[in-house]
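Side project, low priority. Logging it here so it doesn't get lost.
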Amino acid sequence: MNNICCIGHITLDKIITPKQTSYMPGGTAYYFSYGINHLNNSRNYRLVTALAPSEYVHAEEMQKNGIDVKIIPSRRTVYFENTYGNDQNNRTQRVLAKADPFTLKDIKEENARFFHLGSLLADDFSPEVIKHLSQKSILSVDAQGFLREVKGDKVFPVDWKDKKELLQYIHILKVNEHEAEVLTGSKDFREAAIQLNRWGVKEVLLTLGSLGSLIYAEHKFYRIPAYPPAEIVDATGCGDTYVMGYLYMRDKGASYDEAGCFAAALSTLKIEKSGPFSGTEEQALKTIRQSNLHAEII
C-alpha cells in the first residue's frame, strides 16, 4: 500500500506572466508529483492520472524520473491558459479542452494511507468516488475544481452544489480565501473555517497567499506564516505544493503546525522558480530555521 496517492489530471498549461509566456504540463497531479519526488521519503507515492494518448509522453517522463504513475486513457487532455499580472495572488483562466472524469472503476483498486483529489473542474470526481475513497483512507481534497464551471472557454466561480452532502466525507480540505467565501458565504476566515468543520471537514487548510495560511483542526486555529521569497517568479502550483508538503509531513506524524510550516516553506521555494518544486527537504527546513516567523495558536 502507498503512503500517499494523488488522483488528478495532468494538464497542458499556457502560463502568461509579466516576464514571460511559457508552455508546459501542469495541474495538481503534475506539481504534486514532481514536488514530492524531491523529498526524502517519496518512494511510497503513486499518481493516478488521465490523459489523451497524444500526451502520454508527460506521464512517461514522470516514470523515467522514478514516479509511480497509473495512466487512464482519456479522449482529451485538459488545456488551461493562466494569465498573471504583477500581483501573483490573482490570475485569469481559460479552459481550451476538458478530459474525461475519473470513475469508480478507475480508482477502486487503489490503496493508500492518504488520497488527495486534485480537482481542476467541477465534474472531475463523482460523489461515488469521494465516498468510496473516504471509507478506505484519509481523504484530502483541493476545493478549487469543484468551484469552477466552464462556459465556452471561460472559467466562472460557482458554489459546490453537493457540498453539504460530500464535505462530511472529506478529512482534509484545502481552500484559498476566495474559495472559502464562495463555499460558506463568509468573508471572515475564521468563521468560514468553522463552518466547513461543521459540515464535516476535520482539517481545514486555508491559504492566504502572501499573508500565510490558517489551519483549523480539533477546534484550534494555527496561524502559519508565509516565508518571504528571495524573488517572485511564478506562483502557479503553489497551492498544490502547499498541500503536498502538508500531507507529506502529516504522514510522517508531524503536528498540524509543523506540517503547515513545512508546507509554507516549500511554497516559498517553489514561487522562486517556474515549474514544480525542485528544492530539497533540507532547504525547506533551513528556511524555517533561519526565519524569525513562527506558527501561532490563535
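Brief comment: The mean pLDDT is 94.
Revisit when time allows.
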